[in-house]
Amino acid sequence: MTQQEMEAKTRRLENYQDICNLQGRYNHYMLSGRFDKILDMFAKKDQNVEIELADSGVFYGIEGVKKVFSILGEKYGFPGSLGLHMLMTPVIEVSKDGKTARGMWHSFGCNTIKEGNRLSAMWQAGKYDITFVKEDGKWKYRVFKWYAIFRTPFDEGWVKRPIISGLHQEDGPGIGALYEPYDPTKSGGFLPLPPEPVE
User: Fold this and answer.
1) Which residue among 40, 78, 113, 171 is least packed, with the fewest CB closer than 10 Å?
2) Where do the domains of the chain lie?
C-alpha cells in the first residue's frame, strides 16, 4: 500500500468515526431533550437542508428543522417522558471527494407517550436515512429522514397495533412518499435501501 493509499484509507476511517459519533450524539441529545444541541448538528450554509420524521411531512431549511423539533418538544416535553433509542446496522458511504456522505441505521427503542392524563409505554422501530455534508471541516446533517417501521403499545405489539401517536399536523406539509410503516396485511419493502459502496 502506498503512502497516498494509506492516507486516503485513514481519512475514510476518520470520516466514518466522525459520522458515527455525530449520529450517536444525536440519540443522546434526543433522550435528554437537548434540541438546541441537535439544531447545531444541521448544516447552516447549505440550501438543501430538509428533515422528515415518520409522518411529520417534509420540512425544508433550518427553519423547517426548528419547526420539527418544536413539535417534538411540545409533544414529548412532559414529566415522565422517555425516548431511548439504540442505533444498529450502520452503513456509511463517504463520497470520493470526502465532502458528502450517506448513512443508514436501524433504530429500536422504547418511548413513554401521553394519552390524555395517562402515561403509556411504547416500542418503536425505524430506519434513519441521512445525507451528510462537510461544513467548515465538520460533518453536518443535510437531509435527515427517519422512517417509522412500527410504534406500538408495549403490551399489544406491532401485529395488533403497528402505529400509534404520530407527528403529522393538519396544517403541516404532506407526508412523504416513503412513509409506509409495517402493515400485517401486506409484504413491505421497508425502503429505502442502504447506500451502495463507493468504488
Assistant:
1) 171
2) 3-160
